[in-house]
């Protein structure tokens, strides 16, 4: 029997990207903002930046190795090793094309041999690039994600979704499985 495939988002699920970006933003632009108060998914809305300025700062952040490669949470690797024994693991990310190599480098540095594939959703040749239809098409058993829009997309497509708890997704219904650590994931699969 083939092992089921679990898709896992990269930014803010596998890698604490937004937390690192806020640290960068506070140091570089003297604009501190506590992570626990981030109540919206798009940081430009939280930091009162126009979209162009937010994109400029993200590009600057991603070009700065001091910030853009945060270390994974301590429990992540052991938890993923256990999951890999029962499931195939894929990364499913909306990261734009210019930063694909950075994702691969981070995965190869911190989690070598864990993921069988990295799916860059924005680059797929399909009309709807949201994760629900992509997960359904690829027959993923479940998706672990933090983005409220992607979670909604999966629910609308009938794809099992597990919410990775972040301040910006706390309003998502209590009936949807939610984890704060990958050690909790097996009980929802």
From TrEMBL:
Domain of life: Bacteria
Biological process terms in GO annotation: deoxyribonucleotide catabolic process
GO molecular function: 5'-nucleotidase activity
Active site: 9, 11
PANTHER family: NUCLEOTIDASE YQFW-RELATED
Family of the protein in this entry: Belongs to the 5'(3')-deoxyribonucleotidase family.
Protein name in the entry: Nucleotidase
Species for this entry: Candidatus Nomurabacteria bacterium RIFCSPHIGHO2_01_FULL_42_16
């Amino acid at each position: 029997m083939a092992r089921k495939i679990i898709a896992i988002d990269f930014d803010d699920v596998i890698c604490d990207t937004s937390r690192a970006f806020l640290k960068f933003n506070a140091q570089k632009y003297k604009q501190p903002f506590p992570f626990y108060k981030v109540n919206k998914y798009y940081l430009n809305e939280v930091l009162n930046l126009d979209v162009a300025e937010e994109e400029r700062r993200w590009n600057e952040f991603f070009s700065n190795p001091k910030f853009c490669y945060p270390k994974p949470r301590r429990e992540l690797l052991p938890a993923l090793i256990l999951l890999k024994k029962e499931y195939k693991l894929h990364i499913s990310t909306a990261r734009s094309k210019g930063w694909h190599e950075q994702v691969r480098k981070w995965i190869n540095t911190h989690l070598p041999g864990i993921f069988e594939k990295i799916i860059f959703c924005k680059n797929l040749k399909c009309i709807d690039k949201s994760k629900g239809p992509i997960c359904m098409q690829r027959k993923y058993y479940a998706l672990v994600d933090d983005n409220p829009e992607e979670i909604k997309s999966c629910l609308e497509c009938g794809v099992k979704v597990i919410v990775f708890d972040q301040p910006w997704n706390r309003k998502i219904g209590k009936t949807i499985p939610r984890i704060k650590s990958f050690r909790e994931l097996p009980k929802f699969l």
